[in-house]
From TrEMBL:
GO cellular component: mismatch repair complex
Protein's name according to its UniProt entry: DNA mismatch repair protein MutL
GO annotation terms (biological process): mismatch repair
Keyword Nuclease in annotation: yes
UniProt similarity note: Belongs to the DNA mismatch repair MutL/HexB family.
DNA repair found in the keyword field: yes
MF terms (GO), sorted A to Z: ATP binding; ATP hydrolysis activity; ATP-dependent DNA damage sensor activity; endonuclease activity; mismatched DNA binding
Main function: This protein is involved in the repair of mismatches in DNA. It is required for dam-dependent methyl-directed DNA mismatch repair. May act as a 'molecular matchmaker', a protein that promotes the formation of a stable complex between two or more DNA-binding proteins in an ATP-dependent manner without itself being part of a final effector complex.
Keywords for the protein's UniProt record, in alphabetical order: DNA damage, DNA repair, Endonuclease, Hydrolase, Nuclease
Organism whose genome encodes this protein: Litorivicinus lipolyticus
Length: 326
């Protein structure tokens, strides 16, 4: 089973950022309203993720580190809707197989317990660890037992940036959750829950920079079964690189050629030269009309009616941008 876990680990655990992403998804699945991510040395030395979610029962703690121990699929029908973000039931087992891991958790009304593993070997029994409701995953020495994989890691600075990118995407898609990001003792963000439009705009400004928000046009469009909202920068703020382009489809970050094309087309009329649009956009549609499971880690989707989505995006943005045409 250890080998199987390490093979599985190759799929989910590529670098500290992929660990962070999985653990944040778990925290979101647990209904967290606040998530704190603290890393040291690019997350290679340590990565600590804490949440205030529903926690894990004492008897379930060790099991949570076992492979296919998901508590999230009740029956096959669940696979269709994929109500929760994680559903493979092997993230924790995979991460544990390539690190020194401590899982601490408490459910409402109980005091909390923890369990530790080292490269899949449970190193201690479940023991008391008083805390408030929620869960903390502490990952140390990632890939300490898989030197070949460790060699593929880039500099600490690069790994830190990858974590920040992953975290930033999650923070952009879940305004209802507060996020804190600390690296080597420095607090980079403290993002409170954002319930109002102004608070959401303030969060985006913190994540991608105030100049974007200063140039941003607010998007709000609806058609049968489709809703587009968010911000698109006026053409005066277009970029020389396509580096400020975020699209979330039903809350999940997506890189999609069709969508990119629709947005570029809408810009073409109002833009000068070879510049790229900047946007943070959210597309909401019936989960049944989009397949998000094309690949679990690549950010691909497949729309049932591509033409419809393309035209909706193009028309919504074109109308808006035409108003600011100079
Ligand atoms: P999956 O998320 O696919 O179910 P994981 O390996 O990521 O599998 O997690 C295993 C199980 O551990 C989850 O199904 C859940 O029951 C529990 N778990 C993991 N992280 C948390 C958390 N932050 N809060 C509450 N429960 C958690
Ligand atoms: Mg998970």
């Amino acid at each position: 089973p250890r080998l199987a876990n390490q093979i599985a680990a190759g799929e989910v655990v590529e670098r500290p950022a992929s660990v962070a992403k999985e653990l944040i998804e778990n925290a979101l699945d647990a209904g967290a309203t606040r998530i704190r991510v603290e890393a040291e040395r690019g997350g290679i030395a340590s990565l600590v993720i804490s949440d205030d979610g529903h926690g894990i029962e004492q008897q379930q703690l060790a099991l949570a580190l076992a492979r296919h121990a998901t508590s999230k699929i009740q029956d096959l029908d669940d696979l269709e809707g994929v109500a929760t973000l994680g559903f493979r039931g092997e993230a924790l087992a995979s991460i544990a197989s390539v690190s020194r891991l401590t899982l601490t958790s408490a459910v409402e009304g109980e005091t909390g317990f923890c369990v530790s593993a080292e490269g899949r070997d449970m190193v201690a029994d479940v023991r008391p660890a008083p805390r408030n409701r929620g869960t903390t995953l502490e990952i140390r020495d990632l890939f300490f037992n898989t030197p070949a994989r460790r060699k593929f890691l880039k500099t600490e600075k690069t790994e830190q940036n990858h974590i920040q990118t992953a975290l930033s995407r999650q923070a952009m898609s879940r305004f209802d959750v507060g996020f804190e990001w600390v690296h080597d003792g420095k607090v980079h963000w403290q993002l409170p829950q954002a319930a109002t439009e102004a608070a959401r705009a303030a969060r985006i400004a913190k994540l991608v920079g105030q100049p974007f928000m200063d140039a941003a046009l607010s998007v709000e469009a609806e058609a049968i079964g489709l809703r587009l909202h968010g911000w698109v920068a006026a053409p005066t703020f277009s970029r020389s690189q396509p580096d400020l382009q975020y699209l979330f489809v039903n809350g999940r970050v997506v890189r999609d050629r069709l969508v990119g094309h629709a947005i570029r087309q809408a810009y073409r009329d109002v833009m000068y030269g070879q510049r790229h649009p900047a946007y943070v956009l959210y597309l909401e549609l019936d989960p049944a009309s989009v397949d998000v499971n094309v690949h679990p880690t690549k950010h691909e989707v497949r729309f049932r009616d591509q033409r419809l989505v393309h035209d909706f995006l193009f028309k919504s943005l074109h109308r808006l941008l035409a108003q600011v045409r100079t």
